[in-house]
Design goal:
Elements: H1 2-8, H2 10-14, H3 23-35, E1 45-48, H4 50-62, E2 68-72, H5 77-83, E3 89-93, E4 95-96, E5 99-100, E6 114-116, H6 130-142, E7 147-151, H7 167-170, E8 174-179, E9 191-194, H8 200-211
Parallel strand pairs: 2-3, 2-6, 6-7, 7-8
Antiparallel strand pairs: 1-9, 4-5, 8-9
Helix pairs in contact: 4-5, 4-8
């Protein structure tokens, strides 16, 4: 693949590129998410240096010192590490074997967002069923609580695919993060972020300041 790229389009491959990411890849991501029920445009897709960078960009744009961020108990350590430099106050949401309890989201009202891993959650391994996803999306909407949905593991299913993303139920009230690390190669550091149109320019600005482009 490297030989083909460097033979066919060497200047494009080795020159600075768009901060939004490689256009055909953004188109592909939007199309693939569409098959999972998440209707987005390629213009909402930001290619990132792994989904870990997406978490950092979310923290940089949405968190101020002392603002509240709701998380599952337990949650992904790397997300806590990404958010912590921006000095939030973490709010743990009560969970069971399927994830956050919908009735527990009221206590997180006013938080900047709720961070979720619905598929094969790290570190618990639990997955959220379809009915729970609907209940969580509805409870988050009632609490005016935006969602940050992280899905690095969703393609690792064996018997049946996971239910549609919670972001498909939340409209413009969600940010969705994906990664190619688990299905392609971790060392390529390739992921993506899907954001509402109103928020996308701020995340793009943060991306440009961080590394110009992936």
């Amino acid at each position: 693949a490297c030989q083909r790229v460097l033979a066919d389009t060497p200047r494009e491959a080795l020159q600075y590129a768009a901060s939004e990411g490689y256009g055909p890849l953004r188109d592909w991501v939007a199309a693939q998410l569409g098959t999972q029920g998440l209707k987005v445009q390629a213009a909402q897709v930001l290619i990132t240096t792994g989904s870990q960078q997406g978490l950092d960009l979310v923290g940089k744009v949405l968190i101020d010192a002392g603002s509240r961020v709701a998380v599952e108990a337990p949650t992904y350590l790397g997300a806590l590490q990404a958010f912590a430099p921006y000095e939030p106050d973490f709010v743990a949401v009560d969970c069971d074997e399927q994830g956050p309890l919908p009735q527990g989201l009221a206590a997180a009202a006013g938080a900047r967002f709720l961070y979720l891993l619905p598929n094969f959650q790290n570190p618990s391994g639990r997955s959220m069923g379809a009915s729970r996803r609907i209940e969580v999306a509805q409870a988050a909407a009632r609490a005016a609580l935006p969602l940050v949905e992280d899905n690095p593991y969703g393609e690792l299913w064996f018997d049946a695919p996971p239910p549609p993303p919670i972001s498909a139920l939340a409209g413009d009230g969600a940010i969705y993060l994906g990664s190619f690390s688990k299905v392609l190669a971790p060392g390529l550091r390739l992921g993506y972020l899907v954001a509402p149109p109103a928020l996308y320019p701020k995340l793009l600005q943060a991306k440009q300041a961080a590394d110009l482009h992936t």
